[in-house]
Structures are given as structure tokens and as C-alpha cells.
Amino acid sequence: MAVYTKVSAEQIDAFLTRFDVGTLVSAKGIAEGVENSNYLIETTQDRFILTLYEKRVDPDDLPFFIAMLDHLAAKNCPVPPMIADRNNVKIQELCGRSACLIKFLPGISVTVPTAAQAEATGRALGDMHEALKDFTGTRPNSMNHDTWRQLAKDCGPDELDAIASGLHDLVESELDHLDAHWPDDLPQSVIHADLFPDNVLMLDDQVTGLIDFYFSCTDVRAYDLAVTHSAWCFSDDGSQFDANVSTALMRGYLETFALSTQECAALPILARGASLRFMLTRAYDWINTPADALVTRKDPTAFLKRLTFYQNNPDIFNR
Ligand SMILES: Nc1ncnc2c1ncn2[C@@H]1O[C@H](COP(=O)(O)OP(=O)(O)OP(=O)(O)O)[C@@H](O)[C@H]1O
Ligand SMILES: N[C@@H](CCO)C(=O)O
């Protein structure tokens, strides 16, 4: 479920008169996603996504996301820019929320990626990193390495142990390890920071869309590859690592973007950090979202299993 703010057909119809996009034919709430309210809009001219930004997206960040998407679209990356109205305004207000009309991209997100799909995604990520080399916008990462200890505290020791026995101690010792080894001196860039399979649209083995840029920020560039690796190369529950998918993802990325020796050497620690980050944010939501809420909670232990895997297989990126 991701329609927190209900917008009537009449309100959407009136909203669309601000734009030169034809008139409303149909509007459907989109079930996928958990952060914002999304509608699929069909007009007499085209299809669009209407997004109303809910509490986790700061409206002050929207100009950064818009500039990033425009920059990437101008360099032919398959991203969905926001549509400007007749007065060249992109950030609108609708039903008391900031809202944007967004280009619709075809494709579906895969749930069990094949090696060919992972390779195409690796290439798309590398192309995006290449295209962002001269992007001048910046946005601090509100979920960067320095925030994870506080996030663990906010979860609470007993609550972490209720998710998995001994989890609090494991998190503390992992935080100490990451503090001692985190590579802050690697090249930084604007990164996507959340390129999970549900944020990549595909037709067969082709990437047709990279979406959901609302965590994008400035951070260690190779960390983006580590996030993508942790999201793509395991079964959803984290219990199975797929070596073919991993090799293919890395091959695709390295075809389009060259990593330095230092960046390659840092991937194991960056992947441990990525696993801890998603384990902690999922744990926080798990603890703070009532079990009967409309939003489906994501399983933190799926990223605990990934973390354990990366701890036990530090040579995984050399294979
Ligand atoms: N530009 C687009 N073109 C086509 N479909 C889109 C587009 N943007 C979003 N969607 C569809 O809407 C769904 C939800 O979008 P999105 O992932 O951005 O929502 P969210 O609530 O911000 O997400 P999340 O919970 O992943 O942070 C996507 O899974 C996809 O099906
Ligand atoms: N992609 C994240 C949610 C958004 O940060 C997860 O699956 O935990």
C-alpha cells in the first residue's frame, strides 16, 4: 500500500489543467512503495506518475532531486524527470502535500534477478556514476556511516535482541569494526544509495528505468555499488548468495565504470556497512511500526544474513 493521501478524480483533473499534458482519462493508486503516495495517471496524451511527498521526503530536498534527474536524463540515463507546468514550475502543491507529475517509464521490477538482468543493472549503475561525475549538486547522506550507532541506540538493546538473539552485541561489535576500517578517503560523488531490484524497471534483460531517487546523496561512490550488490545478489530473505548474479553485476558495472585498486579493496567493508545500514533501518521500522499497520514491514534479519555472509566471505569481490 502506498496511497496515504487520497486524491479524487476531480482534484487530479483540476491539477492537470496546470500542465500541457492533455486531460484525465484514468487514475489509479499504486500499491508498491512505502514512502510516498503514488498514482498512475493516463491522459489523452500520455501516461504519468503523480507523487505526493509524505513525511519522509523533505520538500527542501526536491530541487536537488529534480536537478539530479534532469542532469541524468540529459545524458540519456533512463530516469524519470519531473514535468514542468505551463509556468515552468515542477514542484506543485496538492491536497496539502508537495507533489510532482513525473514521466512514466515502461518496465517492471524483477523479484528474482537473473545474471543477465544483474549485468544490465551493473552497466546502468556504472553509466549513472559516469554521468554524475560533472554533476555539481550535493546533499548530505542522512543515513551515512556516522549515523548508524545512534540508529542502533534508537532501536534499543532489548528490542534488537527481540528481533534476533544476541543482535545488540553483534551490532555493537560490527559498529566498532566499521569505525576502525571505514574508508572515508575514497572518491565521493552523488549516488543513488537505494538501488534495490524494486527501484529498477526492466523489459526482458534491458533496464528501462531507474527510479526512487529520494535517498540519493553525496557519499563514497563505491558504497553505491556495495548497496546494489547487497540488494541484488541474495535471495530476498538473505539466506542464499547467488555467485552468478554477483559476477554478472560486477562485470556490468566494471564495463562502464573503472574502480581504483583502493575502491576494489574497500568493497567488502562497504558491503558490510550497507548490510548493517539496511538491517538497522528495517529494525527501526520493525520496532516502531505496529504489526497491523497498512505498511508491510521489511524483515531486518534478511540483511543480518547478508552481513554475516560478507563477514565470513571477505574475498567475495575477488572471485
Ligand atoms: N517514473 C515511473 N514510471 C513507471 N512506474 C513508476 C515510476 N515511478 C514509480 N513507479 C511505480 O510506482 C511504484 C512506487 O514508486 P517508488 O518506489 O518511487 O515509491 P516510494 O513510495 O517512494 O518507494 P519506496 O518504498 O521504494 O521507497 C514503483 O514500484 C513503480 O511500480
Ligand atoms: N530499500 C530499502 C527501503 C528504502 O530504504 C529496504 O528494502 O530496506
From TrEMBL:
<comment type="pathway">
    <text>Amino-acid biosynthesis; L-threonine biosynthesis; L-threonine from L-aspartate: step 4/5.</text>
</comment>
<dbReference type="InterPro" id="IPR002575">
    <property type="entry name" value="Aminoglycoside_PTrfase"/>
</dbReference>
<dbReference type="Pfam" id="PF01636">
    <property type="entry name" value="APH"/>
</dbReference>
<keyword id="KW-0791">Threonine biosynthesis</keyword>
<dbReference type="InterPro" id="IPR050249">
    <property type="entry name" value="Pseudomonas-type_ThrB"/>
</dbReference>
<dbReference type="InterPro" id="IPR005280">
    <property type="entry name" value="Homoserine_kinase_II"/>
</dbReference>
<protein>
    <recommendedName>
        <fullName>Homoserine kinase</fullName>
        <ecNumber>2.7.1.39</ecNumber>
    </recommendedName>
</protein>
<dbReference type="GO" id="GO:0016301">
    <property type="term" value="F:kinase activity"/>
</dbReference>
<keyword id="KW-0808">Transferase</keyword>
<feature type="domain" description="Aminoglycoside phosphotransferase">
    <location>
        <begin position="27"/>
        <end position="247"/>
    </location>
</feature>
<keyword id="KW-0547">Nucleotide-binding</keyword>
<comment type="similarity">
    <text>Belongs to the pseudomonas-type ThrB family.</text>
</comment>
<keyword id="KW-0067">ATP-binding</keyword>
<keyword id="KW-0028">Amino-acid biosynthesis</keyword>
<keyword id="KW-0418">Kinase</keyword>
<dbReference type="InterPro" id="IPR011009">
    <property type="entry name" value="Kinase-like_dom_sf"/>
</dbReference>
